[in-house]
Amino acid sequence: MTSVKPYDLEAALEQLGHHENIFGIRHHSPACARMVVEAAEELNPEAIAVELPADLHDCITWLAHDETTAPIAIAAAVTGDPHSGCLYPFADFSPELAIIRWAHKRNIPVHAIDLPVGAPKHPCVGEDEIEVQEHQERIAEVISQESWDTQVETAAVGQSWHNIQTAALAVGAATRFLQPPDYHTLRREKFMRQALRKLPGVTLVVVGSYHCLGLLDNSANDTTPDLETDWSLVTASVVPYSFAQLDSRSGYAAGIRDPWWQQAVMGKSRAEVVDVVRDVMVSVTRELRHQGHPAGTGETMEAVRVALDLASLRKLPSVGRREAIEAVTTVFAHGEILGRGRAVAQALQEVLVGDKRGSVAPAAPHPALVVEIKHQLASVKLPSEIKEPSKTLRVDPFSGHTALKRHVLFKQLEVLGIPYTTDKTEGTQRGLKAQGYTITCTWSPGAETATNLAAAHGVTVEQAVAHILLVTLNEPDVPLDTLLTTLGVAIGCGIDQVVNYVVQELTRNWLNSLSLHQAITVAETLSGVVSATDAGALLLADDTKNRCVSLADELAPIIISSVNGIAGSTDPHDARALGHLMSFGTEYAGLLKHTLYRLKTHGSTLMQGAAYALAPDDDTKALVGSWTDQASKPYLVGFLSALGPAWPDSYLLDEFIDNIETIADSAFINMLPSFRSTFDLTSAGEREAFLDRLYERIGHIDTTLDPQRAVEFATEDARARELLDALGLMDLSFDPATRWRLILGAQPDQLTGTAQKMATALDELYGFSPNGDASPGDGRITAGHKPGTISARVWKEDIESLFGHQGVQEIFGDALEAGRGDVAAALDPDSVTPSVDSLKTILNLKGALPEARLAKLRPIVARIVSELSKQLATTVRPALTQLTNVKTSTKKSPRLALAATIRANLTNVVEHDNRRTIVPVNPRFYQTQTKISPWHIIVVVDVSGSMEASTIYASMTAAILTQIRTLKVHFVTFDTQVIDLSDHVEDPLALLLEISVGGGTNIAKGLMYAETLIENPTRTAVILITDFEEYGSINRLVDTVRRLHDDGVKLLGCAALDDSGVATYDEAVARQVASAGMRVAQVTPLELARWVTEVLA
Question: Which Pfam families did the record assign (predicted)?
Fold first, then answer.
């Protein structure tokens, strides 16, 4: 649909040329801001018409006021409709503000002629607000900053207003032909035409250049309905604004890039613009030096020269914004995008955006948002004036309308950054967060100031909150975590607009690529609406709630199908996630029944424990009771994690409690560090709830034993005497209360003697939480010591004297994993048990320790890597024998080719003693080949934080593959960046010391780099080792896999590479890459070797 006949562009411009009283602009244009005033001086109009909603006319007086300082904005919303908000920012270089100020000084009337904010909405069939917004974004994209700068801004220096008016009209007309107006734009232009016809005399019309053709009288072709004059009432305020908000990259509405630059070049001559460029280069240099990067006078002068030369080469009358930016990136960043390039971009943005903030004339009415907030606070009997005293009250959001309104208002003020509440105290009930809380409310001078600052976001609380949240979502490449955080906040604040936006975004762009944890997080967030457990959800519209319920329903099958991806997990978070699923309702419990049954037999030990917790059978209580030895620790960790806050009351722990209280002292001492570390994973509040349960038992232990158990205990006691005697603990005897205090880290003041020493040694590591406890309890659980209270040497001696050598191994292992690098120096390399877990723990300390201390760890790492590599080579090498540079032949050699011999003699079978025997009449032998055609193996390894164990196995396996002459091996690692470590691939120790584990995941980038290494696709195999938790573009990843497969590359995606062959991975993404041609499997190093042999042999 278009408001003009399809003229060619030349005819349209000729038509506009006859209307010199129409000045097309861009809403923030230094050139137009100056030229429109020059045009007004020459045309001497009787009135001014600007593109501003007609019902905001009263705000013009305060825009033009002598005491008003830009940048400022008009915030408006339909009265009673918090979701109708809009924002109109102005700066000194805004042409509308420039002409309004000019007219105000000469008492020339200014008319707002755009469609009112309060006009009824009449969307065209099939068109909604999102489509209107997308149309406006397309227009903004066509009239890009760069094209406008080139055609209008840079060309304006030394030009007349006639030339700039023509250039601006040309850009607008061209854009209109490329992107015809939508229905909403046609309604606006019809209203503007009608408004202009009512104005007498000569009127200078200042509107966006896109609309100029639409203002010409062509009513015969107008298909839009007549506009009503019954507008809704609108609340509007002129509010302070800032350059930071005006910059378009901030996400705020109707902005422009680099406002400081726009202000600085406004009205400047060519020589003055050169001074501005020089100031920019000096400021960038200063900012880079402040960041610690080398930059000086030489770079500054060179950057100025480059900017001037670029303008000259492009035959521009002056240096423009584009030339200044290109000069900076060329000279200071050396063309780099990353590294130094990022620092330069940050410095450039800091300089060109600026920190200017506007102010409104003191006599102007108070911002509507301030009035609204105070009114809402007073309506629920809360302090709203500085003179009012603070008020402490109890809030239970579900107890009534007033309490609900208070609760949601607190949430909204928090989003607005208004410091109104303090001393919030929340309780817990059986480890679960209580719904009610106490809080203190104060309207302080700080709250008053913050409210005035927030006024630029809207005129109602809901509009302002929605605006702030949507700004966050308007940033490019918004990560899922931000979406979910924003969704939770929006639900808590009852903001329909934002909830609908995020739900739509999740449904359109994320639903089919969510990992299990991400899907669970989405479901948990939506459960506040679905189950009405979030008080803010009570304020949402029914349509919004229905959309949330629909999305939650779509998530259920995705989550259930992804559970298989965590079957091999050793992370307690995965067990907790499984427990969360069961808490979502009977629907999930029913769907998970078969999966849990399978986990009991095929999952990792931790996930088996979780499955038994969530789907117990008749034997589960006895099974849990047997988990009192070292090997059972993962089962118990999974069990407690899956039950979450419910574990303290679980009947399944009855026999476990009995056995803890009755096992021999020696067994208890051996297991105490393991028990303490296991229960330390639970919150203090949960352990205190468990203590309450134990209080009913302690002191009432059944001491009668059957004869058989008495004999077993006597035998165990005999063994215990030897250990206790060696440890100097012959006088030790632990009663049930002491045992549980040691295990739970509870009531240390009740412990004495050796028990107290044990508690002190354990408290050095366990119980301390630097980030606080989600359920802190009431103080009966010790918080432990701050790390480093005891020196590592003394601590080791204490542990060894109390728990023996095995205790040192376990506790120091946990200490290393917790980041206690000081304990590493106290370890003896020969005493460390070689394992992937210990190697992973020590390697994690690389970035946290100084080189002097790290050097002491190298012998330990070297020994572990050496031992593990020997063990792995023994397993893997036999499977790779077919890949050596040999062929089979009848020529004799010391090496018999058994498989080839059997195949060659299958016809030579005789029977002897009723058994068939192959007679090797034609034996085959291995012969060395002189010519080989090597296969190219590219191992691409994900080194994000979740892939530590697989990274270790990948390094050792790659080193083994390099020993085969027929293979050329590349070793590439990636997180969000790619590093080629092929030079170290033959030495697994050097390789592991070079790898830095941690960060995000961009699988597509890793594969795209591997693609550049390929010389002969049909003789190349790419082995991708990742958990498929892709943070980058899923589509780009799938396209890359499909392209490699189509080229003939052999592809294997290892969801795990460890000795278990059971993985934790994103099943949804794995399915997509599998459909594109990559074989995806969970493999051990041996199975990987067999695959390589199968594909390459």
Answer: DUF5682, VWA_CoxE
